[in-house]
Amino acid sequence: MSNSKSAVPNTLPLLRDRIDSIDSQIQILINERARCAQKVAEVKLAEQSDDVVFYRPEREAQVLRRVMERNEGPLGNEEMAKIFRQIMSSCLALEKPMRIAFLGPEGTFTQQAALKHFGKSIISAPMAAIDEVFREVESGAANYGVVPVENSTEGVVNHTLDSFRDSQLKICGEVEERIHHHLLVSPNINPEDVTHIYSHQQSLAQCRAWLDRYWPHAERVAVSSNAEAARLVADAGKGGRAIAAIAGEVACELYGLSKVSANIEDRPDNTTRFLIVGNQDVPPSGKDKTSLLISAKNEPGALYHLLEAFERHGVDMTRLETRPSLMSRWGYIFYIDFVGHYLDDECCTVIDELREKASEVKVLGSYPVAVL
Fold it and tell me: Which GO terms of the cellular component aspect does the record hold (predicted)?
């Protein structure tokens, strides 16, 4: 027993020395990668005089997939991919820092999704509304935008779908974010004194059963975003007013709030899907998804004839949403997602057939399936 105790101090220094040696090697290799990224930028600038594209979504998706495929643990695949995501983000910033517009204010889940997709080495640009995100990217003031499109509990975000009607932006990527809601208060407030709970209307809906059970007497107040709710709670707390917010981890840290209860969402698998919008078409990555906007002809069986093409050519349709067309009374526009890239032979054939049967077919973009 004494021998085993005496072996511990002798072993720990050796392990720590080994860790220090590995850290040194990792640091050397990261800087070597960064120098390669700088050389890539030099080559691109030399070969392309106009509109140099530094960010390649399909390339990054391929790299992250390979990271996960060759991972042998003990770190999990996603954890390893997140580490490489940040390395790639830092290296890309050496080529050209990217300005990313997102549905703000700071502290929203959309910002959390932007950081997950692009890494932390970006210039964040919070926008007040979804259409402002589109305008910021269209004007060239931002390289890309991040907007929510659907939630697994509450369904589609109509403002995002409607923004594609008149926009020429392309969908360049997607990111899925598990949504964890927390009940937050100012640190100097007694939670038992809370009379009002602030949050976005969707977050209130996603926590409805929990609120009914544990906070039935608190008035629920819908505001523009969870981050705005957190800001209001922080300001109110300075004056001693006892209100609470439902928001996420980023907002909690940003506004210095305390958690009363964590992970209060009614469904533990609550997930929101976000889209990355930009001005470029994305080449195939090997595992892609395509989104279409279709105006159907007003005739019997119109929708059936559109969907039949997918089944006949073996193309997997993953989502179908309907919105009023605004062009005619009782007219509708269909938003469709399917597996594959629009340049793939079978997908190209389906799109050609849809153009013959529909009034309008607009390819919103082909993009890599979410890796993280």
Answer: cytoplasm
